[in-house]
Write a structure and sequence with these properties.
The strands form three sheets. A four-stranded mixed sheet has the order 1-3-4-5. A three-stranded antiparallel sheet has the order 2-10-9. It has a three-stranded antiparallel sheet with strand order 6-7-8, with no helix packed on it. It has two helices and ten strands, in the order H-E-E-E-E-E-E-E-E-E-E-H. The chain is about 15% helix and about 30% strand.
Length: about 160
């Protein structure tokens, strides 16, 4: 004898899974497999925020958030194959009103709103249009530092 699941339970389960998937896509800087994971919050000290350079050794974009001027400003950092650390706001001049940001697909950052792709070697160098808006940073020993003033200058995107 087999037990048959009532039809309405199957529909509810499908609806819940679909809703969870859609909410995941709607999250800024979403991580599909880490459902609803968001950016790492950083706390300013001495006019800057910092994070370990070692975090970037995997070649993946890492997303961060800083509270400034009453807003949460998001940015990402990635270390490219040429050894350079690149940082940019998780927003662009065109799609920022949608507040969706970017995701990484291999060697490209992809605008979650419009789908345009940008090679990682362009991050931090090319500005305007749908390119990730460059954010100045520098390596100081074993840490990457970003000045809070530079982060605050990008608050209008958020």
């Amino acid at each position: 004898m087999s037990v048959k699941t009532p039809d309405y339970l199957t529909r509810i389960a499908c609806a819940c899974l679909t809703l969870a998937f859609l909410l995941t896509l709607a999250q800024p800087s979403h991580a599909l497999l880490g459902l609803f994971s968001g950016p790492t919050s950083l706390t300013p000290a001495d006019g800057a925020v910092s994070f370990p350079l070692a975090d970037l050794q995997d070649g993946k974009a890492h997303f961060y958030a800083v509270a400034t001027g009453g807003k949460e400003v998001r940015f990402f950092a990635v270390k490219t194959a040429d050894g350079r650390v690149r940082t940019a706001l998780d927003a662009c001049d065109v799609c920022y009103p949608e507040k969706k940001g970017y995701r990484q697909e291999g060697d490209f950052m992809v605008c979650i709103n419009c789908g345009r792709k940008f090679h990682l070697t362009m991050v931090g160098d090319v500005r305007g249009g749908c390119n990730p808006s460059p954010l100045a940073s520098h390596v100081a020993g074993d840490a990457v530092r970003v000045n809070v003033a530079d982060i605050a200058a990008g608050a209008a995107f958020f």
